[in-house]
Amino acid sequence: MPPLRTALLQSSGRPGSVARNIEVLDEAAGRAAEAGARLLVCPELFLTGYAVGDAVPELAEPADGPGARAVADICARHGLAVLYGYPERAGGLLFNAAQLIGPDGAVLAHYRKTHLFGEFEEKWFTPGEQPVVQAELDGVRLGLLICYDVEFPENVRAHALAGTDLLLVPTALMHPFAFVAESVVPVRAFESQMYVAYVNRTGTEGEFEFTGLSCLAGPDGTARTRAGRGEELVVATVDPAILDASRAANPYLAGRRPSLYRSLV
Predict the structure, then answer these.
(1) pLDDT surpasses 90 at 1
(2) How far is Cα 3 from Cα 240, in angstroms, rounded to an integer?
(3) DSSP bridge partners of 208
(4) Which residues are the active-site residues?
């Protein structure tokens, strides 16, 4: 399989303005495509902004709503896949969701955050119940989590056991938890032998101060690219050949002894 060029959009856009955030995404998709990217990953709740308070129900939309159609048009025009976060309305409930749309504008995968963080999320959102959601892009198996989900090693290991090659994690990591981006995410990539694209918001929104530091972590536990603290688009490569070699040299999955771990569940 050829390497998969992957772009990370570290941005908070304009909280509360879906139209403006679509414009930011369109511009970033153009730059990502020019850099050879086939995949662009956006932060958690990118479509609306994170700290939108009581506007969450008003801004939420179904998975096939106008925001999804606008993103699908961006994907088709620029010839790349996009993963974006948004508040989903479904059956009278609200979910913190992420949707992956392919280069042809078709939906590839949809995921609802399973582990909600803090009073804000617990007030507005219902936790998802599907732990492993995957899709294929150019022969690479992609998996989806959102922010706090990746801090539970069980979630990442479940993806590893399901064959995920590149784990996509839109996030809204806040001060003072920068160590998650700096240390936890690369360790997750190493211990489960996969790539992890961890894509954060930046700046201040309401009571929240986001840390930036988005990264693409490799299976060797290093950041193949890392953004700073401000608005930034970074691009790096997911190489299946490197992944295969790393898995052969670090056979954690083959060395597991599940019969010893029953007390964990």
Answers:
(1) no
(2) 6
(3) 205
(4) 44, 113, 147
